[in-house]
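Re: your question from the hallway

Yes, I did run it. Sequences:
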Amino acid sequence: MQEYVALLSKYFIAICMAVYTLESFLVFRFKQEEARRGIYLRQTILIFFIQFAAFMTLVIKSGDLQYLLFYGIVQLMLFGIIMITDMIYPRANRLLINHICLLLGIGFIILCRLSYQRALKQFVIVILSMVIAMFIPSLIEKWRFLKGFKWVYAVAGIAGLSAVLIYGQFSHGANISFSIFGITFQPSEFVKILFVFYVAASLYESTSFLNIAFTTVFAALHVIILVVSKDLGSALIFFIAYLFMVFVATKNYLYLLLGIGGGIGSAIVAYHYFKHVQVRVQAWLDPWTYIDNQGYQVTQSLFGVGSGSWFGMGLMSGNPDTIPYVEMDSIFSAICEEMGVIFGIMLILICISCFIMMMNMALLIKDNFYRYISYGLGVIYIFQVFLTIGGSIKFIPLTGVTLPLVSYGGSSVMSTLLMFYIVQGLYLIRQKEERNGRRKKRRPNREQRYRRETETIPPEDDLVFLDRETE
Amino acid sequence: MITTYLVVATFLGMVVYLCYFVATSEQEVLNNSFNSRQEILIAQNYRGDILSDKGDKLATTTLDSEQNETRVYPYGEIFSHVVGFSTHGRTGVEAASNYYLITSSAPITDKVVNDVAGNKNPGDDVYTTLNTHVQETAYKALGVYDGAIIVTEPATGKIIAMVSKPGFDPNTIDADWETLTKDKSSGKLLNRATQGLYPPGSTFKIVTALEYIKENPDTYNNYGFQCNGRFTLGDSKIQCYHGSNHGYVDFKSSFAKSCNSSFANIGTKLNKVAFRKTLDELLFNQELPVKFVYGTSSVHMEESLSDEEIIQTSIGQGKTQITPLHLNMITCAIANNGSLMKPYVVDCVTNSNNSIVKQFKSSNYGKLMSAEEAEILRDMMKSVVTNGTATFLKNADYTSAGKTGSAEYNSKGDSHAWFTGFAPADNPKVCVTIIVEGAGSGGDYAVPMAKRLFDAYFEEYPINEE
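Structure:
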């Protein structure tokens, strides 16, 4: 009986996930938000199907009823997120909300299976984050003065990072966190957001060479502090985000090439001066030779993915506990092992869907400040996904960053939720821009002319790729 | 826009990489001894059987009334190295097919029944290419001698038999482990057929002859040499085996009679750089395309080699070392028009209902030499049987070809007896390589064993009359 249920639910979960992913791309076919409602609803149902099948497997396989209780509260929370967001912000982007719930849900399934205590802790943090996050879209929409606070962001960011450097406790080879009242913070997760705000505000003021040089000095300061703290994963994320934000603001390929050149240069320097960079590169190039040493984490992670194969070993049937830091760095391998590589690939596609949405927002928002923010957050998000998944499957060296919304880590999940709700706020701003634009009957720009010609004047067709360079 | 495309392209690359990884390495990943997930499978399923080509059980798991598992090897010592053991680490087929043996592909209905009854599922069975009759013949043929025998099919790469002596009884491996590992001198756990490194002796003349043909494709037949039992060049001197005096020999009879003096003379005429290239093509000093543990054959051949060394190397003495497996692969390539089929021992994997889960196919490694060169060598090897050192095979029901060797391994002139060859001579079906340690001449000791093995093979797999 157990076997049947486990096997069936394994395939059922994979199918639900595949359909969900397919629909998140099919949604782009409809321009009217009304027409999309049906898809959103189906997606929501699929999320709950996946949750149900997964938690039932956990309960049946383990015979432990505490999973049932946890299942109940997680469902209530996910349902709450969808309902409350919809009530407060009826104009919010539903696809993004669905994605948030799906990713959080997957995280809870796998965390619960790995460590019930940690899943419970994560749950409390998510609730707390959601309470804060619910205010964010309206604040973003109302507080238009945010673009003037460039120095606040820079000073707060650098102060936050320096604090860790000075007081930080030692945690796996890097100074990245510190504790207050027993709660461990990882400030770099929050400074990411401040950093994007700083760069956006600065580039909004001016994209002259002088200002960019000036901004680069402060951006570099962030990165250098992170490097000194040995948090190379975050340093890389900050660096890439800055590079691409400058590129999108100036549209100058020279900056991009210069940045990439500088990046490669510093990577070589880092390789020669940091022992733990050498170790990671070595572990990446040839983990099998150092299998019982520096290659251990990568190979155990690969064992997880390889053993799982296409459909996974089934929840509770694998052995992901052998992977070091599995809840943080290698959660993707645990997911592949028990839920299958097909499920893993769908997960990657959903992350890309989130990213495309942020890029679209960046394309359509007219206010450059918000445009850069959307763009910066999108790059940070997807680059982090790339680092963690690529690292677990030996596509790139392992850097030890979390998979946003899925991995265990209070700071990570909270900052990512804040990021996603900032994006929701930007979405509201964009719609307002559009309504104002129509009311004032401004000279039609190319985008509006195009719409008039095709006679579809959808209110919320944010997901059509349109080139607005000639604005 | 460009960022989006860049990101999508990168992730696409990552997904393709992930799929490639899963599609290609599942087996290897699960078989790695550092992968603790094997323990899960072992806890769920009991180990499947290892079977011969005709279904004889070579290794099986028996359950007592309390469902305790015991691994039983009905043939004891006969298959000890090739089948291997699964406690104290794993060796042989037990190691190579471990993943299949502990995985159960039993139908889900059976699994549910076992699940309810609280029993383990039966692991998958592994059919090998090994033949019980040929293996037993090989085991008996070696008799009291230490050594190794390997029997393969040149057209497919199937390993029909593989024996190494001295052996051990895998049934009592747990009890014998202490003595087996302490006893360094006899090396009972070593599979001499794949890991034993021996001087090739006169069997290496196949390689020297091949190089001479390559360098003199039109004129090799014009070669002639007056043998007076020894060959001197400067201070270096070698003798023919037991000081025999072969008189005038041409290229073919030098080979058939295994004239050391003549081959030393040939050796001095060879281009060392070209010889090196030929040796590389024949996989000397290199990895072999096989999936089991083996030793790497070594030979020294560079510009700086002294006359003494080149003479010694040409007749298979000196520093040259080869495994019986490697010599067998070269012989197979000669028998198979120059192209080598990768040797393999696992034929297919079946589930408890005897339906095939995975079928392994023969695969071609590529050419070790041209078809013309292979044909010339076949012709020369035939003459070894018709009027050379292996005439014991002349009166068999089938034709055969080969090369003997008597490899000296100490200063007293004691030698290992070698034979490598195939039958039938013109349409080779089976290839046999034999080494008998310290026995004496290949013609006297190894060739009669080869005849017994050819006989046994044709009894099991008769040649079609058509």
